[in-house]
Specification:
This protein has 233 residues and is α+β, with helices and mostly antiparallel strands. 19% of the residues lie in helices and 29% in strands. The protein is built from 4 helices and 14 strands. The longest helix has 31 residues. This is MucR family transcriptional regulator.
Length: 233
């Protein structure tokens, strides 16, 4: 090996051996460099991002990663203001306030009181007692009410509620009598009972009611009175 033998000079054989040795060293060195590059990766390859279609896409720009300064500094919208409740708005659960009566206006039924007063409270059978129909203004203001005779009536009923007599059955009267009643003022209308029974229109036979307790009811148009007790002895 150290003393080549051949027809050529020895220096030729040494040159050939050096050339082969250099090629082997070059091949070994190139393979090592390629292995190191594959293990660590290349900076240029790290900057390439795969695109959805399989190709390469450039790295995202800085303004796509960092949010805009204007967007960051925009203030959030103020909260929606709740309108204040109107103090004059009435609670739907509360009933509306009742209007006060007007001085000098018409007398409604709740502004007057109707009452029957038997004078006396008891009478013998067949007598002719007097019953007073009393109308009173119970409101704090003056008011006007029609007190026509045709609107006035007193009715007598027995203990079972059967009608016995009515003041308008046989002798109805028609008058026109509008009046202004002052607060607390009372008007009395005396009605004389003839002591006999009657029916509306006075068509049935009239007879004296039997002794006992009866009730008297008065009215002025649609305003009515509580019952008053009257006794026949």
């Amino acid at each position: 090996m150290l003393h080549p033998v051949g027809p050529l000079p020895a220096v030729v054989y040494w040159r050939r051996r050096l050339l082969v040795l250099g090629c082997a060293v070059g091949v070994l060195g190139g393979g090592g460099w390629l292995g190191a590059a594959a293990a660590t990766g290349s900076p240029e390859e790290d900057a390439v991002v795969s695109a959805p279609d399989g190709g390469s896409a450039p790295a995202p720009a800085l303004d796509q990663v960092v949010p805009s300064l204007v967007a960051v500094q925009l203030p959030s919208p103020p909260p929606t203001a709740v309108p204040a409740e109107d103090p004059e708005e009435q609670d739907p659960e509360q009933p509306p306030a009742e209007s006060l009566p007007v001085d000098g206006g018409p007398c409604s039924n709740d502004m007057i009181g109707v009452e029957v007063r038997p004078t006396p409270a008891s009478s013998p059978v067949g007598s002719k007692p007097t019953f007073d129909l009393v109308v009173t203004n119970v409101s704090p203001v003056s008011c006007v009410r029609s007190l026509d005779k045709g609107l006035q009536e007193i009715v007598m009923v027995d203990g079972s509620g059967t009608r016995v007599w009515g003041s308008n059955d046989c002798f109805p009267e028609e008058t026109t009598d509008p009046r202004t009643l002052q607060p607390g003022e009372s008007v009395v209308f005396p009605v004389v009972w003839g002591g006999l029974s009657s029916t509306p229109g006075c068509t049935a036979e009239r007879t004296p009611p039997a002794p006992g307790d009866y009730r008297l009811r008065g009215r002025l148009d649609t305003a009515t009175s509580p019952d008053a007790t009257f006794t026949l002895t």
